[in-house]
Amino acid sequence: MAAQEYVTLERTGDKMPLAGFGCWKIAPTDCEATIFNAIKTGYRLIDSAQIYGNEVEVGLGIKKAIAEGVVKREELFIVTKLWNTYHHKDHVRPAFDKQLEELGLDYVDLYLIHFPVPCEYTPIAEAYPPPGWLKNGADKFNYERSPIQDCWREIEKIAESGKARNIGISNFNVQTMLDMLTYCTIKPAVLQIEHHPYLQQKRLVDWVWKQGIQIMAYSSFGPISYLEMTGTAKDAAPLMEHDVIKSIAAKHNKTASQVLLRWSVQRNIVVIPKSLNQGRMEANLGVFGWSLDESDLKAIAGLDAGLRFNDTMEPAYGIDLPLFD
Ligand SMILES: NC(=O)c1ccc[n+]([C@@H]2O[C@H](COP(=O)([O-])OP(=O)(O)OC[C@H]3O[C@@H](n4cnc5c(N)ncnc54)[C@H](OP(=O)(O)O)[C@@H]3O)[C@@H](O)[C@H]2O)c1
Fold first, then answer.
1. Residue 220 beta carbon below 6 angstroms from any ligand 1 atom
2. Among residues 88, 132, 174, 282, which one has the fewest Cβ atoms lying within 10 Å of its Cβ?
């Protein structure tokens, strides 16, 4: 099995693997086998979400890995996320229970609020997995008048029940977190954000660390997973083919993807790359036991361009919401 390194979460002392596996855009038909392979390959952190529409199959892959003795449940770190349509205080717990049922698990290791955006509710009995940003059949995005504070209180209750060992947030900015820190009884353990050399968000990351909150990076390879969705991604130079990344990779005899992932894990930022390809899945775990040097880090720092690909203002989302402004 590939080597693994960890960061420790403040409240529980749980060890969160620095290299995990993401489940976005894995078709349900491929998903059980993919998750089983990922665990067999050495991944111990799995990043799932209600909106990915594949939690039943994620759960089957986990179940198979445990049944075949590849891993024990306590060696896995399972992350999942509450979708925007279930922020209301009456809807958080039923949505979470539905996820546990679909995943076939007694508990998750980390439960995140996916976005700080309450969207109009659709009952589970009416549609599940939930609709995306627009209610099914709607042509306009509708908010729900539901404060994050109410949602977080329900998430805290899930943590108190032990069904989610740790709780956290995703796509939150400093202002939203600052507010949260005034009312929370359990502080978020993790913030998951888009993070790659084109979007380094150094001030956000440094501030979050000072609060004792760990960072998990999504879309570590930058534009590649947004090519079919967003114009910005099509216009950006592919990160894996960028001269700076390629020359660092050649210097260390590593792949460009390993350089991009190492850049995060070396700074204790968790990565969750997704790959359906066995060779790439294995390569993406090759991020321990070697280091980028100061000149590499300086060269990568120079690539920061404030380029966000998972941008709610992109036409692909169909909503009028400049969430990150
Ligand atoms: N919280 C949020 O809002 C949010 C948003 C986006 C993503 N996420 C999470 O973050 C995870 C990862 O982000 P992501 O899915 O956007 O993208 P990613 O992992 O940065 O990139 C995935 C893409 O890169 C390709 N790839 C993977 N390894 C490669 C390698 N070694 N060489 C060349 N190509 C490679 C994959 O293709 P192949 O499969 O063909 O290898 C796929 O097209 C998601 O799965 C999800 O769990 C969270």
1. yes
2. 174
